[in-house]
Design brief:
Layout (H helix, E strand, L loop, with lengths): L7 H5 L2 H15 L14 H14 L5 H6 L4 H5 L6 H17 L6 H16 L12
Helix pairs in contact: 2-3, 2-6, 6-7
Length: 134
C-alpha cells in the first residue's frame, strides 16, 4: 500500500481540480430547492470565495485569509438560515461535485468527511419539520 503524502490540494491536482469542483458544486446548488433561496442569483463572487476557501482548506496557498482575513465560517454564515436539512443538501451537492471533479478515493472520502464536520458546524437554525438542529 502506498503512503499518501503532501497536501490534499496537491494530491487532487491543485487549482484546476478545485475550480472544477467549485463549478460543479454551484451548478448543483443553483438547482437545489433547499439551497437556492439562501444563495444569490449571481454566484460569481460566491464561487470565487469558495475557490479561495477550498484551496486553503485543502492545504494549498492561504488565498482566502490573504484576501478576506480569517475564514470565521460560522460567523460569516450566521446571517443565513442554515438548518440540518440545508446542511444535508449542501453535502449532497458537494458529494456529487467531488465525483464529477474526478477526485479519486480515498481522497474524495477524506475531503468529504472534513467538509461534513464543517457543514454541521454551520447549522444555526432549527429545522421546521423536526424542530431540532440536527
Amino acid at each position: 500500500m502506498s503512503e499518501i503524502s503532501g497536501s490534499l490540494y496537491d494530491q487532487i491536482g491543485g487549482a484546476p481540480t478545485v475550480t472544477k469542483l467549485v463549478n460543479h458544486f454551484y451548478n448543483l446548488v443553483a438547482k437545489d430547492p433547499d439551497l437556492k433561496p439562501i444563495f444569490p442569483d449571481d454566484l460569481t463572487e460566491t464561487k470565487e470565495k469558495q475557490t479561495l476557501f477550498l484551496t486553503q482548506f485543502l492545504g494549498g496557498p492561504t488565498l482566502y485569509t490573504d484576501t478576506h482575513g480569517h475564514p470565521m465560517l460560522r460567523a460569516r454564515h450566521l446571517p443565513f438560515p442554515v438548518t440540518a436539512k440545508r446542511a444535508g443538501a449542501w453535502l449532497l451537492c458537494m458529494e456529487q461535485a467531488l465525483q464529477c471533479a474526478n477526485i479519486e478515493e480515498p481522497l474524495r472520502q477524506i475531503i468529504f468527511d472534513r467538509l461534513t464536520l464543517t457543514a454541521h458546524h454551520m447549522i444555526n437554525q432549527w429545522d421546521e419539520e423536526t424542530g431540532s438542529p440536527s
